[in-house]
Amino acid sequence: MNSNSFLKGRGAQQNTNNKFSAYSYETRDDFLEFCRLEGETADANKTQYIPIFPKTIVNKVTSPDVGMSYSMNMYQGCEHGCIYCYARNAHEFWGYSAGLDFERKILVKHDAPKLLEEKLKSKRWKACTIVLSGNTDCYQPAEQEFQLTRKCLEVFLKYRHPVGIITKNALILRDLDILKELNVHGLIGINISVTSLSEETRRILEPRTTTIKKRLEAIRVLSEAGIPVNAMLAPIIPGINSHEILSLAKAVTENGALSMAFTIVRLNGALGEIFTDWIKKTLPDKADKVLHQIQECHGGTLNDSRFGVRSRGEGKIATQIHDMVSLAKHLYFKDKKFPKLNTKLHEPFKDGQMKLF
Fold this sequence. Notes:
The protein has 12 helices and 10 strands. The chain is α/β, with parallel strands linked by helices. The protein has a single domain (56-74, 110-349), classed as CATH 3.80.30.30. The strands form 2 sheets. Strands 2-3-6-7-8-9-10 form a 7-stranded mixed sheet. α9 links the parallel β9 and β10 (259-264). α3 (112-121) runs parallel beside α5 (148-158), α5 (148-158) runs parallel beside α6 and α9 (245-254) runs parallel beside α12 (315-332). The mean pLDDT is 93.
């Protein structure tokens, strides 16, 4: 890997063109030379927080194979910079690139708690688990400054409404007090993403995420508090972390996880170009092997968009991964079960307090 050409602290190494834009952008050599001669930085590599004001915050999930009915995202874009993240493509709808823009231009929905409260108070709304966040991580670095996730959890508690969380950040432990209160009423389920036990792998795949040690600690602390935790071993990337399935399953169950789930990586939309560029710069010796194995799982391409198949894969390599996951579940999760969340408490709390009559 050429350290001079590699952008440290980021996953994507380029801004791919936005498919919805009539314009394309490139960094020309003559511009880079001008910056060098002038002693200027061509790319400051800084994160920007950009406020946006949507009219609604809760989204109905229509994809039949996602495993959730409703989701909400306080932030669009994610500074974690996970190179494989399917949410990158959504940044194009906002007029940005799925590449570096996704990691550096973070859109902040300051009205999220207010919009959530309006939704939960609606007479037409029937309690159904809402997941934070179906798209970008609700505990990414922006949360330290804006605390929108914590404020939304307070709303869920106030209205006794079930909520799920997907994260790979140990910042979740900051909100342990609220999570415990939600759990008293059976209103909370946590999904912690653990993709590798190797810090080197974690660092290149997910450059601004919590360390693996802290993620396992988060699973342990939450589990010891009686809060149900599911471990997301996702995505499984052939040739990068596929050999770790058993060791990952063993580690998360030893720390208290009640269940595990997985997906096989798929590189839809702009991800194919972003991932290919990244792996050729980061892991040039194994780049072709990894790309070919991913293609083997998706009928010769880097992506399969068919519902029910796209995240499971097909072919010999996918079958091997499925067999390993089945063995892991048999060995480490045979007598464990993730509970269903309570949807029966919300109706009496529509106005924020228990109705007596």
